[in-house]
Amino acid sequence: MPPTATNEMQDMSSEGDGLAGGAAANASRRLSPLADERSAELCECVLDIVAALFNVSGRELREAGRSSMGVARVRQIGMYVAHVILGLNMTEVGRGFGRDRTTVQHACHLVEDMRDDDDFDRIVNMVERVTAAALRQSEAR
User: Fold this and answer.
1) CA 97 to CA 72: how far, in whole Å?
2) 94: burial class by Cβ within 10 Å (0-12, 13-18, 19+)?
3) C-beta separation of 53 from 124 below 8 A
4) Residues 102, 8: contact at Cβ < 8 Å?
5) Could you tell me which of 121, 104, 113, 124 has the C-alpha nearest to residue 9?
């Protein structure tokens, strides 16, 4: 079962709580260079997929700083899909998208709330299916 943003909230208390123990826990939870590289590659794939599906510049999606609402929404959907469908944790998604994990958390909560709208839910569902199919193909090679 894929993780959800609410499941990730339970793990948040040990991540970066400002205490010395929290820093030690973060150090032990760091990914190996290979796993970190793999999660970055997956995020790059998701960015390319959402850029193509929504006809948005991949360069705009990757830019640091604030973006227009349309570009930001596409990026938020990409972050959500990377977290929920690919099972990456919010820190991994944040690194892959060049954002902080709290930005990913906000994006996931926002997309989950917006899925109450049937049209938006269909769009996100389509992105989830395309991403799952595309990355399943790349795993088979």
Assistant:
1) 12
2) buried
3) no
4) no
5) 104
Query: How is residue 36 written in tokens?
Result: 């970190």
Per-residue pLDDT of the chain (141 residues; tens, 9 = 90+): 455 544 444 444 334 333 344 443 444 355 577 788 999 999 999 999 999 999 999 999 999 999 999 999 999 999 999 999 999 999 999 999 999 999 999 999 999 999 999 999 999 999 999 999 999 855 555
Which residue type, as a one-letter code, is found at position 61?
L
Angle among Cα 11, 12, 18 to the nearest 5 degrees reads: 130
Full DSSP string of 72-128: HHHHHHHHHHHHHTT---HHHHHHHHTS-HHHHHHHHHHHHHHTTSHHHHHHHHHHH
Q: Give the type of residue at 23.
A: A
List the structure tokens of 38. 């793999």
Q: CB of 50 within 8 A of CB of 77? A: yes
Task: Quote the DSSP letter at residue 14.
Answer: T
CA–CA distance, 89 with 30 (Å, rounded to integer): 11
